Amino acid sequence: TQNWVLQPGSSSEPPFGRGILVSRQAGNRAVIYSVPTANSIYRDVITSVFNNTFLLPFTLVAHGVLQDAFHFVKEDAWRAQEDRAQLKRFGSQFNTTFHEKEGEAGSGKVLDVRIHRPNAVINLRYGTTLTRERQRLLHHCKTAALRKAWHRERDA
């Protein structure tokens, strides 16, 4: 018999940590899977915070820096405090920031959590719906594309 040594398919650091996979299920719900050898803190925190959230059906490239941007939504803003405590368990391993702001059209406050990883930015917004967040992001992308096209036209 031959001994096969399998090499990883990519040298990039996975967005959620080695051995942790996020899958989109029916209704755009995120389900977290992990292998037994995954970092136990990463596995516990990612599962606790992201399992059963809404995962937007597209991935964007963040600000031209070639980082994938994943977007998640939790409609219940009150869950943010509990999740913040979980996310602090990462310590300095993950660069995590919290931003509270007014939602669109008087929809109340929203809390944005951003986890900056070497090759990805993971966004989680509390206090909105999947539909509202999808519309907000698509509007943002359209505005950015028009602005870039205008600058290209102006500079030509």
Automatic annotation (TrEMBL):
InterPro entries: Teneurin (IPR051216)
Domain of life: Eukaryota
Biological processes per GO annotation: motor neuron axon guidance
Protein's name according to its UniProt entry: Uncharacterized protein
Keywords for this protein: Disulfide bond, EGF-like domain, Repeat
